[in-house]
Amino acid sequence: MVNYLAEPSIQTPTMKKIFTPFLLLLLGLFSASELMSQTVLYQTDFESGIPATWSQTTADATSNGFEHGTSISLSSEYFPIPVHTFFVAANDDKDGCWTGSADPCSNRSADRLIMPSMDFSGVSNPRLVFDRYFIEGTYVYTESAAVQASTDNGASWTTVKTLDGAGEWVTELVDLSAYGGMPDVKICFFYNDGGGWLFGLAVDDVSIIEPPAYDMAATDLVVPNSYEVAGSRTIQGSLLNNGSETINSLTLNYSISGGATVSDNLTGLNIVPLGTYSFTHPSAWMASASASQQTIEIWASNLNGYPDEVPANDRLTKGLYIVDASQTTPRHVLFEHFTSSNCAPCASQNPAYFSTLSNNTDKATNLSYHVWWPYSTDPFYNSYTAGPQARVSYYNNVFAPWAWMDGNSTNGLAQVNNLLINNRQAYPALFEIDAYVVISTTNELQVSGTLKSLAPYWGTDVSLHIVVMEEYIPGPNPDPNPNSENKFETVVRQMLPSHNGAAVIALNAGGEQTFSGNWPMGGTGVNPDEIAVVIFVQDNTTKAVMQSAYFKPGVSGLEELPIASQLKLYPNPAQDFSVLHFDLEQSANLRVELYDLTGRVIQSLSEQNFSQGQHTLNLNLSELHTGVYFVALVGQNGRQHMQFHVIR
């Protein structure tokens, strides 16, 4: 994967940085500065600089080592550090002198930021707690970081814990019990650039504590979606043993919206200090639909028969809406794919990814945003920069190739398979999206449609996006710095009305909102025959994509006209059959067509004359797979269509 972390600068980037995948750590929810009732042995927050009692060593006198400052002063183009008040950081990229084979500016193979000597006499279980930002990236070589300890005044160092990469500031907890009782222990933060021009390590809010015997923190409550369908729901989550005693038994509790506590006594456990415990509560919640948000609260108590000594981190609460199944509709899954025509890993990983998606066109759609790294010479990016830049920033996406499924990271293209798509597609959606897309005689793409909410819409920051893509672009690769790709699929060409989308208004159950967009395609070099439009609705608070839909323009080549005063299909969703109802104000010669999301006509009833008045037609759907389809009345001067769903 190729990685880049910043918005493009005016200058053309001339280097690339290739990352290994990272694993987000499951850590305690409290920050290093929120130590509650634990015994604090040492603490600093770097707000006033690096304490005079700290020291540093480097392998090269030209290395700047760890410096004090803020995100503004300590960041660089390729290693921008998220805001975290004042902190310290070793930034290898800030030196800025890569020649292609080794780092001639500074050797950061052993940058150490060393704490003052600690006296752990009489302390059984010392623990280090700190916040850190470390990516664990690669660019020819691999960077590394660790917490190390010395008992000989720094003459030799032992690695206590190796740090794994993460894409955000996280709180790290390090067990120092092996050094309990020792009178002279030095602890350091170690960074190694691996011999390349890489990124760095940032550290803040450092404390050494002696934890209480019993402290169980709730660290995760699994609520993957902002709504669920009424029925039996399992309560799942994770606990972290912040105490010094191994937990063999506890009482696991949850309550709904402050109601009765549901408890279960668990025995035979073995949750060691700093160990995590993932649970599924034995008693399911029988959830009923409600117009208001409901809250789930979890906590553990009765630890080995003793009370929790730090109650402030015991409980975790999340909100959830419960809807009836009748307020949902089949989901069409959206993948947002970040790639580049000069990214070498993209060339090797994209083919299998696109092959998987091609086998699931009835369930999922892909959008490929071409990005500006490792080189800003990608012609697809340069033909439309605003959209890819906006989506990179929206997700804080740092990898290429990478994919996000309905707003959730897939942890790499290799994770995308049929099972993943099927599991997500089985989760119902709350919105129906219906649109008419046509390319006019003046080569203008015109989109108009309706968003319908099947349940009361409760979001406060939800957007609707209209995305124009070119489904297939044959080679050769037009990039001046090409990879080995010779074809490009689902390339994003425009976002309407802009990359920001349009705000979705408050909607009651059954409420509708209209939308539209236009794009003059003349002179863009885009092949009209390969144009498709993807429309999706996204909750910007959670980034969850709530529904998406795919449309091909000009299916019939006729403008949309109101042929019938009423056009209905019942049942919808349907299984083997449905009945089309329409009412004509005057007689007309009409043809009835069924077509799929690609615009392919899958059934067509021969044209016949329909008299004025009401009509019904039985539609045989038994050979259709689960998915989204359209039925259209097609006349001499126009057409009228509606969307329907088939479920199995």
* Biggest beta sheet summary: 6 strands, antiparallel
Q: Beta-strand level of the residues, as a percent range? A: 35-45%
What proportion of the residues is helical, as a percent range?
Answer: under 10%
Mean pLDDT: 88
Secondary structure category: mainly beta
- Integer-rounded radius of gyration: 29 Å
Oligomer: single chain
Report the span from N to C terminus. 38 Å
Count of discrete alpha- or pi-helical segments spanning 4 or more residues: 5
Strand tally, please? Answer: 44
Low-pLDDT parts are 4-36, 99-103
> What coarse outline follows from CA principal-axis ratios?
globular
Report what the structure shows:
The two termini are 38 Å apart. The protein is mainly β. The strands form twelve sheets. Strands 2, 4, 5, 7, 12 and 14 form a six-stranded antiparallel beta sheet that branches. Strands 3-6-13-10-11 form a five-stranded antiparallel beta sheet, with no helix packed on it. Mean pLDDT is 88; it is low at 4-36 and 99-103. The chain is built from five helices and 44 strands. Strand 43 and strand 44 form a beta hairpin.
Strands, helices and their partners?
Layout: E1 2-3, E2 39-44, E3 55-57, E4 67-69, H1 71-74, E5 87-91, E6 111-114, E7 127-134, E8 138-139, E9 141-142, E10 144-150, E11 158-162, E12 170-175, E13 186-192, E14 200-210, E15 216-221, E16 227-229, E17 231-233, E18 236-241, E19 250-256, E20 262-266, E21 276-280, E22 285-287, E23 294-301, E24 316-323, E25 333-339, H2 344-358, E26 364-370, H3 379-383, H4 386-395, E27 399-400, E28 402-405, E29 408-409, H5 418-425, E30 431-439, E31 444-453, E32 462-474, E33 487-496, E34 502-503, E35 512-520, E36 531-539, E37 545-551, E38 566-570, E39 577-584, E40 588-596, E41 601-610, E42 613-620, E43 627-634, E44 639-646
Parallel strand pairs: 16-24, 25-26
Antiparallel strand pairs: 1-27, 2-14, 3-6, 4-5, 5-14, 6-13, 7-12, 7-14, 8-9, 10-11, 10-13, 15-18, 17-22, 18-21, 19-20, 19-23, 23-24, 25-28, 28-29, 30-31, 31-35, 32-33, 32-34, 32-36, 36-37, 38-39, 39-42, 40-41, 40-43, 43-44
